[in-house]
Please model this.
Amino acid sequence: MIREIVKTKSIEEIEEILFKQTDDYYFIEKELKSVEHKNTIKSLGARYLIKLSILEFLKLTKEFNDIEIENEESGKPILIFKGEVKDKLKENGISNVHVSISHSKNYISTLVILE
Model:
């Protein structure tokens, strides 16, 4: 089974969502440090949308920190799953997750493919 999830939000929507919570609600410290010298809101916004897509598919709501997103030197995102998210992916027969990120001046879009 392959499942594709596309999410698009405006930069303003992302800022509003992210600033309602403490930093560690959505991201671990390592993720926050990895985007310090980049376009922070776009980088964090894309990570948030990826995590949200996966959590919604798994019917989870608060396990944002069970998904860690790192980057290879090339910039390609690497997803690391822990805890309940890892268990739910296994239960659903999901062994591969691919992501694509795109952003413009005003919008962030992500594509998540679960197979």
